[in-house]
Amino acid sequence: MEFKTYSSPHLPVSDSVPAMMQRVLLALLPGIVYMICIFGWGTLINILLAGLTALVAEATVLKLRNRHVTTLLDGSALVTGVLLALALPSLTPWWIPVIGSLFAVVIAKQLYGGLGYNPFNPAMAGYVVLLISFPLELSLWPVPGAGMGFSDTLVHVFGTGLPADQTLDTLTMATPMDDIKMRLGLSETLSEMQGSALFGSFAGATWEWINLWFLIGGLWLLQMRVIQWQIPAGMLGGLAFIAFVFYAVNPDVYTTPIFQLFSGAAMLGAFFIATDPVSACTTPRGRLYYGMGIGLLTYIIRTWGGYPEGVAFAVLLMNMAAPTIDHYTRPRVFGHEK
Amino acid sequence: MADSAASFRRPSPSSSTRLHTFHGGLKLAGHRELTAARPILPAGVPPLLTVPLQQHIGTPAECLVAPGDAVFKGQLIARQVGIISAPVHAPSSGTVVAVEERPVPHPSGLLAPCIIIETDGLDRYRDAADTALDYARMAPGALCDLIREAGIVGLGGAGFPTHVKLGRDKHSIELLLINAVECEPYIACDNRLLQERADEVLEGVRILQHAVQPQNCIIAIEDGMPEAEAALRTALAANNETDISVVRIPEIYPSGGERQLIRIITGKEVPSQGFPAEIGIVCQNVGTAAAVHNAVIRQQPLLSRIVTVTGDGVARPQNFETLIGTPVSHLVACAGGYTQDVERLLIGGPMMGYAVADDHIPVTKTINCILAVSHEEMPAPPPAQPCIRCGKCTEVCPADLLPQQLYWYAHSSNLDAAQDYSLFDCIECGCCAYVCPSHIPLVQYYRHAKTEIWAREKRTHASDLARQRHEARLSRLDRIKQEREARMARKKQALSADGGSSEIKKATIQAALERVKRKKEQAGMAPKNVDNLTAEQQQLIAAADNRRRQKNRGNITE
Questions:
Q1: Are B10 and B249 in contact, with CB atoms under 8 Å apart?
Q2: Please, which residues 16-75 of chain A have a Cβ atom closer than 8 Å to chain B?
């Protein structure tokens, strides 16, 4: 009788890429739900638009490249779309998530060879293109809790119409980080700002909770071993370290490490964006350095750069450094000289 | 997920020995309950035994028998060639019917020279075994020779000739480590061996101790086999053994690998591409210890071994005492035959074993497990997806390699880079491929790259030889030319040195002229004995002269 022959090992497979991507999406859920509650339906509409565009773009390019369109089911395109959407303010017009998602999937991912070959984080590449090209649309963060109804939001996203009693100015407001940056520019000190509405219980209002929910999801991902500890620990550690140094020097101008850790995209970045394995370092030690680099750069861009948030730029910059870091951080092989 | 990477777990030591860890590894479900509680049964004497000449790492043995020869059980039928080699003995009595190439257990279904013995069913030795040797009074070297002559090789799977490991007298050995860690799932032959024959194993260990003369001796056993450990401890206690200690180690694949086990027990690392003896350690499998016992106490060479036949593809999983050369098909028949939905037949365990296309191959000294499984138990691997560099492979690699980098280089045939990333330190344990979410057959890529590199080295070697030959020829021609020129130069010089005196020239010419003249005179001399010739003789001479003249003329006209 003829038996089937396969290469070892023969035990059934223990995991799959789609399963990993599903876990990533599941881990994002608490943060997503909270963001929808706070910022309204726009967040959900962004996720649907970006996700759908990513899937359609991925399928189209795979078809054009004569690849199995079933590769689509690996879920990586959907994750890219969702991550991009979470970086966008919820009152953007419809073409913002669509353009970002198209750039992310077509240019940043598929043109480099598709899953596994892209040197840059696709979601962040898409986000940065939008940030540079459409700075106004990317500042439309709504006033927390003052969201519009679903149909009003739809009309706004797909048209230009806002409800008669509302204008963009009444609907939107600067994020705490934006606000602080602007006020510091006006020579106001942090202690003078203390007690204003932009501070919440322990960090920036509203955003502290968003970050907390993403932290919880991220810790679950760690526990499920979808991601490893080095990158999140490196990034948060690096960010906290440099924030502490400057805070210790001058607490009037520099925010606390806790504020930094729970502001903007810090937690989303540490657990979901910087951990994109394709564009990150692969050696264990390299991942730690890679994370630290992102943390440090994030702080530098946030504090002295032209943009309020620096995670996206920091990730892209460290993407460039990843191969070099990998080269110099190869682990000592068993039985080799120390 | 729960059963993957266990590197963070520190083992709980069961004795005073502090245990160490190695990087990575996997916690795998054992599946040993299928056979671990059932006794070892004899597989009997099959009608035909196919005994390969190479069942070990090193040079194949040289056949000493021819078709038609009668052999008795234990007779030497192929002798060792060189140092890293091992002899082969007839596993049972009978007649040699062929010495030819037959399929042997190999991932690619290779043919190799085998001695085929038609057994007579009597299974008889030439003479009954002598009384046991008093090994304690033998020199360690003589004991090594005895082990070598018994054809014993590492029975844990690698098949490295045991005497080579023992006889490294350049190094003083601190530790004799006996490996009772059957880390691959399904395999239970060492487990059963310890449960049933702990005394023999212990005696074998003592013999090895005497041959190696180590300072310490440790038997390492995994925590998944309490019955075997109990049997071993009972045997130790019964013998009042104090020189040998038993250390229980956590069941993490691949702790049974020699290098990993040495690391766990001693914290030392065997140098890359080196041998344990270099760091003062000799490591032997328990099965090998039992074979050493048989060789010295029963004076019986290695003729059989215990093989686990298991999986849901056989009717009655069991361990069998199996003669070397027994067809796998015979062994499966002993286990009640295949079940209906058997799909894959593996030689070895599910992590490092290889799948074979058919069962007409013999059991060799290194086969510890025959695993037959259905599609349900081990489904076909899903198609490979692109590597996403998630690094799970790096997490579990017990050799601290970067498997995804190795894959990248092996995939793109960048062999130099693969070697630079220590491809040859890969032990092919399969941990990386097991955890790979993209289902890439990583080990296959590494094996392929290794084969490519070996082939390339072979080619380089051959072309090096050719180049050396060519260069040798060129230099030889050059030398000859130079010698000739030197000779000419010397002659010329000699001539020009005394060419100035015309006296010598003249004398030379004169001498030459005289030589010619003498020759002519000789030619013109009348032949002797021609005075009293008969007319008939004169006629013959005249005819001959005539012919000679004609011939000369002919030559001239030409």
A1: no
A2: 16-17, 19-20, 71, 74
* Cα–Cα dist B178/B214, whole Å: 12
Number of C-beta neighbours around residue A276 at 10 A: 26
- Residue B471: count other Cβ atoms within 10 Å of its Cβ: 10
Q: Which residue has the higher pLDDT, A149 or B169?
A: A149
Average pLDDT of the residues in A42-49: 94
In chain B, which stretches have pLDDT less than 70?
Answer: 1-17, 128-131, 168-170, 497-502, 523-531, 554-558
Quote the ipTM score: 0.89
Q: Which residues contact B466 (CB under 8 A, 6 or more apart)?
A: none
Q: Is A12 on the interface with B (CB under 8 A)?
A: yes
Predicted pLDDT at B157:
78
Please list every residue in chain A whose beta carbon sits closer than 8 Å to the beta carbon of residue B400.
331-334
Are the beta carbons of B393 and B24 closer than 8 angstroms?
no
Determine the longest span between alpha carbons in chain A, in angstroms: 85
Going by pLDDT thresholds of 50, 70 and 90, the confidence category of residue A105 is very high
Q: For the segment A223-242, what is each residue's pLDDT rounded down to a tens digit? A: 999 999 999 999 999 999 99
Let me know how long chain A is: 338
> A11 and B373 in contact by Cβ < 8 A?
no
Tell me the average pLDDT across A189-194: 80
B185 at A interface, C-beta within 8 A? yes
Instruction: Name the average pLDDT for chain A.
Output: 90
Q: A2, A4, A6, A11: best mutation site toward chain B, by most B Cβ within 10 Å?
A: A11
**C-alpha span between A191 and B154 (Å, rounded):** 75
CB–CB contact A333 B4 (8 Å): no
Structure tokens belonging to residue B215: 């300072």
d(CA B199, CA B431): 35
Q: Do B433 and A114 touch (CB under 8 A)?
A: no
Which structural domains are found in chain B, ordered by start?
Answer: 1-30+133-298 (3.40.50.11540), 47-123+303-380 (no CATH), 382-492 (no CATH)
pLDDT at B281: 93
DSSP for residue B73: B
Instruction: For residues A187-191, give the mean pLDDT.
Output: 81
Residues 344-373 on B with a CB inside 8 Å of A are 344-346, 350-359, 371, 373
Cα B272 to the center of its chain, rounded Å: 19
Positive/negative CA dihedral, B153, B156, B159, B161: negative
User: How far from each other are the two terminal CA atoms of chain A, in whole angstroms?
Assistant: 51
pLDDT score for B498 = 59
- pLDDT above 90 covers a percentage of chain B that reads 64
Please report which confidence band the pLDDT of residue A308 belongs to, taking 50, 70 and 90 as the band edges.
confident
Tokens of B518: 């003498």
Give A242→chain B minimum CA distance, Å.
28
- Among the listed residues A74, A147, A85, the one whose alpha carbon sits nearest the alpha carbon of residue A114: A74
Q: How far is CA A103 from CA A54, A111, A123, A128, A309, in A?
A: 9, 10, 9, 10, 21
Q: Distance between terminal CA atoms of chain B? A: 101
Q: Which residues of B56-89 are buried (b: 16+ CB within 10 A; e: fewer)?
A: bbbbbbebbbeeebebbbbbbbbebeeeebbbbb
**How long a stretch of residues is chain B?**
558
Q: B439-454 b/e with 16+ CB inside 10 Å = b?
A: bbbbbbbbbebbeebe
Put simply, the chain A residues between 97 and 116 with a CB less than 8 A from any chain B CB are 114-116
The pLDDT assigned to A97 comes to 96
CB atoms within 10 A of CB B399: 26
Q: How many CB atoms lie within 10 A of CB A321?
A: 16
